[in-house]
């Protein structure tokens, strides 16, 4: 998602007014960043095997694609891309499930059995270890109500609200590959839609807190639905983590928001979803605690369509971008998370207990117990993880943190108190499969460099419209344990055009141009995949004039070499990357093709910008999951 409806709802909504000092003074200049050779990086990071390896094929051996402004999905000549699951396609659970109606006239009941809108993060769960038969869990982040209904947002009604709510949430689909082609199983016992009205539990330390209690749920443990599910993650025990990002935009209030609400961007009229007009749960004046029941990471067992999804409060309440897991050396799980807003923070959670064999059933409460940390970067390439624990680091009752639940419900304020480092919009986080080194995208921050918001070595560019990617290694150079509370960091890449005249917009000399990195993932061989989300209002203009549509690139983390792998159709962002275990297929999501600068389509001209993927005969552009593979059956990225 860009920023929600309209440019004036940009991501300073829930502005961090704490004015945390950054790490001041650039000790690592831009030039130094670019001059770092792979060998120097390896030395600094204490790395010996950062290089990407593949069993077959040369890493980055594909023919890179040029920038594009065409309304097509373009992949290298030696690859094929096939659309798998579009908004409105039947989820596959029920024989005779409703087909998509190209004029947008499907009912809300239909929509609750079809793919939701605006696909985002996803994860693949192979069935019985088979790389050709799996479940795919897909987030549906938000809706463009101009496209969703026949007449857009005119004649606004309870049924339109219900349809918008049904187009949110998650799809679980069963997919199978036959003769090289992926299909959605039409009658799957696993298929499931989770929506903004699916019953869920709140677990962990904040469960049952007074702020989580409502008239409908006086004990504060049960909530309906999940909202604005952005990036995602999977766990070593096979569950899906879906993350609530810009949930604040759904709540409206006639009263002035409180300071605590403002810190999370609640505002009078929300972001224009207008749910509160027909569903008073989203009227914050009538139900002031409902918004506290959002902003969490939600755990779903994809293998059990009857499982009640669980909001894990131990992982904190922020605008969760994603949740990337890895294992500490002693077997505890570590979850990396970004809070995607200007000047917000990077977090990690370390479980109290170790992961046990036996899948979800054996690890059902693992994410309810552990310690949440926030990152503090120092200017000398070192950093520390600061515990967000009641009674420690200044998190005391007199500051409003009487219990651990207070800390978790007000995670942002707690992070302010302990001295976290404000970042340029943390998006996805990826862990190298061999070295454990962690990479994170900072998508952009046009307000960096303004008074009180100076550049520092981890966020080194003022008016950072292009964004950058950072990397760190946990613990000492040799220790490399994800549970460490100290780390050593470096820049990986400043995004931009390597040939840009203006230094602020100039990208890494070792790669193709791109801006606003967002999606980020390693494949099992150690190639780093980067997906971009330049907002539609910035695309094709100013410093983005020659950069074309949003794209996906592939990088060698050792050399920094970065090549453009695909370009998307008009008005889309590229997101949601996941791979088959044999690395022969990469799945991605094309989100909001055809989006206009206002982020809400004109229902009378739904194809004004794009008719992808159905072409001129189709009724309207549709977000979709796409399967991409090599024509010769080799590994992707080679
Ligand atoms: Fe939903 Fe931060 O992207
Ligand atoms: Ca994102
Ligand atoms: Ca984004």
Structure description:
The chain has 638 residues and is mainly beta. The protein has helices spanning 30-35, 38-45, 108-111, 145-148, 158-166, 259-262, 359-362, 404-409, 411-418; strands at residues 79-86, 119-127, 130-140, 169-178, 181-184, 192-194, 199-203, 222-224, 229-234, 240-244, 297-300, 310-312, 324-327, 332-338, 342-344, 346-354, 370-377, 382-387, 423-424, 426-431, 438-442, 468-474, 486-494, 517-522, 528-532, 551-555, 562-567, 573-579, 585-591, 624-630. The protein has one domain (30-630). It is 8% helix and 28% strand. It has a nine-stranded antiparallel sheet. Strands 8-7-12-11-10-9 form a six-stranded mixed sheet, with no helix packed on it. Strands 2, 3, 4, 5 and 6 form a five-stranded antiparallel sheet that branches. The longest helix is centred in the first third of the chain and has 9 residues, at 158-166. The relative contact order is 0.17. Residues 230-231, 321, 427, 518, 533 line the site of one calcium ion. One calcium ion (CA) binds next to strand 9.
Fold topology:
Layout: H1 30-35, H2 38-45, E1 79-86, H3 108-111, E2 119-127, E3 130-140, H4 145-148, H5 158-166, E4 169-178, E5 181-184, E6 192-194, E7 199-203, E8 222-224, E9 229-234, E10 240-244, H6 259-262, E11 297-300, E12 310-312, E13 324-327, E14 332-338, E15 342-344, E16 346-354, H7 359-362, E17 370-377, E18 382-387, H8 404-409, H9 411-418, E19 423-424, E20 426-431, E21 438-442, E22 468-474, E23 486-494, E24 517-522, E25 528-532, E26 551-555, E27 562-567, E28 573-579, E29 585-591, E30 624-630
Parallel strand pairs: 7-12
Antiparallel strand pairs: 1-30, 2-3, 3-4, 4-5, 4-6, 7-8, 9-10, 10-11, 11-12, 13-14, 14-16, 15-19, 16-17, 17-18, 18-23, 20-21, 21-22, 22-23, 24-25, 25-26, 26-27, 28-29, 29-30
